[in-house]
Amino acid sequence: MRELARRGETIVVLDDLSTGKRRNLDGVAGEIEFLEASIADPQALARAARGADFVVHLAARTSVPRSVEEPLETNAVNVEGTLRVLVAARDAGARRLVYAASSSAYGEARTLPKAESMPAAPISPYGAAKFAGELYARVFTRVYGLETVSLRYFNVFGPRQEPGSPYSGVLARFLLALVRGEDPVIFGDGEQSRDFTYIDNVVDATLAACTAPGLSGQVLNVAIGSRVSLNETLRLLARLTGRPVAPRYEPPRAGDILHSQADITLARQLLRYEPRVGFEEGMRRTWQWYLSEYSPAQS
Ligand code: UD2
To answer: What is the pLDDT averaged over residues 175-181?
Structure first.
């Protein structure tokens, strides 16, 4: 949002604030038309999409374990909701829709790194629903001529990510625990690994995907292209923060993938994408933000 505002674009945001906060738009709120509404609401969607050249569809019900507990709700938002956004973009005559797909589509695929040419094999309701969104996007390209691009984001993190729910992303949860002087929880032995991707890289790829030529119907990985285990992550955090880190180990979660790492060759070629912020630098910036936002002295 901030980058779009910086570029002087006209921006409409539709968000039901089910996980985000109005405050996250501080500093750019004056440059944005904000509609507090859900993607389940076709009228609100039509209003938001009216006159849009590009629709970036980021709304989702995240979390693998929540999808295991509530598969119907996950489907309603991530599949039906995505379908509604596609319909609204089509009806508004948008030039292109960029869909936030997920690395969870790869599921059990054991080969690393994971390339777009590998078959999708999701192992959670969340992964299945996000993959279904890709299929719908491609079908809309083929049947209605709406240009679509699906970006498989790999474990995005950074400032403003909500840390307060059991379903929040693991790095947000780790950082909140450290700020509060609590022990982070690891589900499993901590040797599972992720291609944690700092938000600025995701913004670069997403904006490039709006305008790069010849992309319609494509599915592309967006990541850093390396992986780090949860145990290594906590060791790095101990070093960056200078605080003691003693994780509590609990049983692994259902639907969890063991290792995740992207091949980003295609995004490099087609989007001229290059991750600008590495994992460690991203963690440093994110820690600073959590520190200023959540330190006991601040709240
Ligand atoms: C999946 C997708 C990711 C994104 C996300 C949205 C994969 C590989 N990634 O993320 O791209 O779509 O879903 O929700 O499918 N964990 C702990 N302690 C905690 C919290 C989590 O140990 O307090 C573990 C968790 O069991 C998992 C890892 O950390 O092994 C990452 O969990 P997550 O919920 O941050 O993200 P993940 O990989 O399910």
So the answer is: 95
Bond preceding residue 113 cis, omega within 30 of 0: yes
Q: Could you tell me which residues come within 8 angstroms of residue 23 by beta carbon, excluding any fewer than 6 positions away?
A: none
Angle of the 125-144 helix axis to the 81-92 helix axis, nearest 10: 20
pTM (whole model) above 0.90: yes
Distance in Å, CA 21 to ligand 1 centroid: 22
Confidence of residue 76 (pLDDT cuts 50, 70, 90): very high
Query: Residues with Cβ within 6 A of ligand 1?
Result: 62-64, 102-104, 153-155, 169-170, 173, 185-187, 192, 194, 230, 253, 256-257, 260
* Domain of residue 205, residue span: 2-298
Nearest CA among 9, 3, 17 for reference residue 203? 3
Please tell me the predicted confidence (pLDDT) of residue 297: 65
Residue of the CA atom closest to atom 4 of ligand 1: 155
Residue type, 239: R
Find the farthest-apart pair of alpha carbons in the chain and give their distance in angstroms, rounded: 56
Alpha carbon 72 to its chain's center? 21
**Interatomic CA distance for residues 7 and 195, integer angstroms:** 29
Q: Which long-range contacts (CB under 8 A, 24 or more apart) does 17-26 make?
A: 18/61, 19/62, 19/162, 19/165, 20/160, 20/162, 21/162, 24/160, 25/1
The structure tokens listed for 78 are: 């991530």
Average pLDDT estimate for 239-258: 94
Residue 126 annotated among the catalytic residues of the structure: yes
> What's the N-to-C CA distance of the chain in angstroms?
26
Identify residue 101 by its one-letter amino acid code. A
Q: Which has the higher per-residue pLDDT, 20 or 43?
A: 43
Determine the distance from the C-alpha atom of residue 43 to the mean position of all C-alpha atoms in its chain, rounded to a whole number. Answer: 25
Please state the domain count of the chain: 1
Which CATH number is 134's domain given?
Answer: 3.40.50.720
